[in-house]
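Teaching soon. Invent one.


***
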Amino acid sequence: MDSSIESLLEEIAGVEDPVENLQSLKTALLSIPLSALRDSVSGQRFDVIFSLLNSNESEQIELCVEILERILMALSPVHLAQNYRAELQAGLTHPKETVRILVLTQIGRMVENPDAVTEILNNQDIFRTVIHCIGEEKLAVAKEAIRCLSKLSHSKPGLDKLFQSDLLKVMKDVMATSDIVRYRIYELVVEMSSVSPISLGYCANSSLISQLLGELTGDDVLIRATAIEMVTTLAHSPHGRQYLAKQGIMDKISNMIRGAETDPFSSLYIPGLVKFFGNLAIMDSPQQVCETYPVFQNKVFEMALDPDPVMIGVALDTLGLLGSTVEGKQVLQKTGEKFKAVLLRMSQLASSGATELRVRSLEAISQLLTLQPEQQTEDLLALTDSWFHLLSNQPIDMIRNISTQPFPELHCGALRIFTAIAAQPWGQKLMISTPGFMEFILDRTAGQTKEAKDSKYELVGSLVSSSTAAEILGSQHYISLKTYLREGPYYVSAVAAVSTEGAD
């Protein structure tokens, strides 16, 4: 062990007010790289630092936390499990939240390590206390406890410990504390269920998932909205979706959308139901989801035309998500006039809605119009071309006008639409036939933020990488674009840089 650290520890043990010495120890520890520190601290006990946590002095406690953070990260999880279990367990009930978070992080490291976890699993009291931390008032502590326990899902012994011992009863007792704490336990269960079909099996057998699913149709609409969010997270994994389908949840949520017409409070949970199906469509198949649950697609169109900005926002995000896939584009196109009405609304919102809705509308339009080179069949190119022209009589001028407004997020959103059509031959023809448009693209003085410069650079890159651009735009424009690309997004020409000299 490093002699200076050793002597500092001895000094700390012998003084009444250790703050200055703790500061010196912290400095010494931070000056040694973590890999070298491992060899320095492995043979030493740090009981003195743990004992100094028992103080009313905030500065002393925080210094001890910073020192222990450094030291414990240098020690292996197995070493911690074998030598510091009692100290860590005591730290779980410390009045300072930073101490509790430090300890939970270290227990998480041990749980993750296959050798250390066997050392710690037989200590029921530690896990009982960690579960109680989920019921904590301090959210940061509860979140760290959830993170720590969720790691038990990576091994069978860990799952057995949590679900096949009296810890399950502890979890259920903690759940009864309040609605907020109940949902934190659900969050843990959903996180663990997502890991594998095996962990999902344990969670399902504990009856906690069926309890969560029951909350979908509870009387409290706010609880219902939170439950929908949790179930959407559960649907992110293939085994989670399979389980939900088997439980009839997709049909249940479809019926909830249908029944929402007569519920005056439905606006609180409808966005969540729509997001559920939107995510499902992207992960499975837009066509299958829209055909099996037509109420979902109808509701999205209805929400896009709704006056409520919350409804519009969710509809825009969902339409963008659906339209980002070829299959989703085809599903939307099949609805004919219905989707045309929605596109027109999106165009109006992009031009003159509230700023946040304008940004979301521009984002959705760019997703709807994007086609990768390998997706550019004659039919799909005709589809994106027709959609672009539905936006306005002069869509290219409309989007360019939006890009010149003094809001960086609108400027970048408009450029993303141009980036989408720049990769397609019809878009390139439109650009070259619009007076002044190539000059607009090559003009480096417009949009001075980093995001704006990056967006313009992406637009230029989209044109240059297209196999049809050189022929459609002409060699002179194409060479100028390649030069722009070579110079990079933040290039400033020498002429522009010196032109202000002598202006006074």
Q: What stands out?
A: The chain is about 75% helix and 0% strand.
